[in-house]
Amino acid sequence: MNELAITVIGQDRPGIVADVAELLARLGANLTDSTMTRLRGHFAMTLICVGPAAADVEAALAPLSADGQLLATVRAVTPDGETAPAGEPYVMAVHGADRMGIVAAMTRVLADVGGNVTDLSTRLTGSLYVVVAEVELPPGTADGLAGRLAATAEELGVGVSLRPADPDLL
User: Is 22 within 8 Å of 72 (Cβ atoms)?
Assistant: First the structure.
């Protein structure tokens, strides 16, 4: 079995998820992981599936890209199998006035202690910028990290919280 990473991006419209999912199902591809969002009117989906060869999936998705409204890419990936989380699950939330560099600064603090961002979303609503990140932290680093995040947030003029994640909800 082949494991494939597929991305589909472009102008949003109703039915894109259904179109992609139906094409993959007809090819016998099993969707294992996926994420999809709409970003300011633009559709973005990334998924991992197991099944047919990359060339077959590319050919099947080609009609979706024919009008130039969507771009679909397919890449074979190496299966990594089931892995236990590398650290403790936490959620970091940042909010405040929009300014350049918020994501860069806050994720650098996480990376400097060995934290790994496993999911991240941002949203700009008017002048309010919100970041929500699921992270895995090395055991025993959360307390010290919270202070470093607070100091960086203060420099940026934003608020931050770091709380243990409920693994059943992730």
Answer: no
